[in-house]
């Protein structure tokens, strides 16, 4: 087989034909996808090996591991490949997987095809034995039995075309490809006629042949290859297993590979919800990326805004060659960061290891650079290359915790400390966690308890308590971490929001009538307060919004 080639802008050889024409010449077209999930798994296994001395073989893990299945059933899959979106977490809560195979089913189910005509809801009812399994025709039972009578994969479409209708394998292959192109493709009508003719020859009544074609064509346009679902499902289950058993190592790998569905700060919040300590970056402890070890995650140096890669490399190489940095002067002398880089390191807490307050470290910094310049001149004359002694700082006023939190968030882009939702001023109330004498220490259990009591007094319920309020009106306050607007069958807009508070996530449904009134409040909003009714959708709690502020 021959096709004309040319060089791409990067200098690589590419075909002059586009993909469909190239395939029509007889070449095999292969889609190679770079999956972040594979890197996350590889990095997690590397960390497990380093932290535990264990060589974990994922091919041998329990496919019905109780801890993993509990995590899946509770929808705690943020960070897990392919199953972390709100719709997937909602599906997992409703499905309550009993094995690795059920995760594969969930991957196939979340596609638009099975959702058409309520097939997804029907599958879940049948899966839990709440609805009798039925088939459009008895001939479909051997093919659809494993999926409770619901059409789920391309392979099932192909088997129906060949085994039930009587098309040849080649015709079924062409049919699948043409249907996926949509009804606009010129050959689709010819395939439809051929399909129905063969079905009638097999003894199907014309009206039943029409229904069978409608079932197959409607689904096939959104169908999912079973091999695709299986490969994705295996990766998803393995991610869930790693998160359930090696949470710190797994979430550190997710963060180091730049997350997935959510942004970095949400994965940091997830780490805190999982009970992990999120440690500040440290010039004597941090690596370039996030690192996890048993019950803590350390923020990496690359997360510090304004810190250049070459400076990070010098920090790591100097530490490896000469050991830990002894004081600020030793660090500056060995690494030679710019003035602005050192200021960022100090302000975000990466130099707290020297036992001084950040104002004291900044005071030292302002006096070190002129001293270093003098030392450099003397070194050129004497040939002796030693760091200067750090000046002893005076007692200086400490930063307030609000100032510290603001600096850390600005420089790191994440909040390593206690969540800020419950420090938002509530109607008619003073700010929680004020700096008044005797107020609780930020991040302490006393502060969290005080914040919770104040929120409850004003009617705000935390995500962990929603189960107590089924079919009741509540108000929640949270940060918007995800949102999706869709158009209903009646061409009206509605929206789904995912809110985050200090305990977890709240899934909010904004129906069209409410969206018309309050939809603008959700556009570009970082935090919202929502009043609505808590509904239990097959084990998944949703808040049907009535008012948004």
User: What is the average per-residue confidence, as pLDDT, rounded to a whole number?
Assistant: 85
In order across it, which strands form the biggest sheet?
6-7-8-10-9
- Assign the structural class, choosing from mainly alpha, mainly beta, alpha/beta, alpha+beta, or little secondary structure: alpha+beta
Shape verdict? globular
Could you walk me through the main structural features you see in this protein, from its secondary elements to its overall organization?
This protein has 549 residues and is of the alpha+beta class. It has four domains: 1-30, no CATH class; 36-228, no CATH class; 276-402, Orthogonal Bundle (DNA polymerase, domain 1); 457-548, OB fold (Dihydrolipoamide Acetyltransferase, E2P) (Beta Barrel), CATH 2.40.50. Helix content is 46%, strand content 12%. The protein has helices at 19-24, 36-52, 66-73, 86-95, 100-109, 112-115, 119-127, 141-144, 154-165, 169-181, 188-201, 206-220, 226-245, 247-256, 264-273, 309-322, 328-335, 339-347, 358-382, 401-412, 445-457, 512-518; strands spanning 5-7, 13-15, 277-279, 291-293, 296-298, 473-487, 493-500, 505-510, 527-537, 540-548. The strands form three sheets. It has a five-stranded mixed β-barrel. The chain has a three-stranded mixed sheet with strand order 3-5-4. It has a two-stranded antiparallel ribbon with strand order 1-2. It is globular. Mean pLDDT is 85; it is low at 379-384 and 420-449.
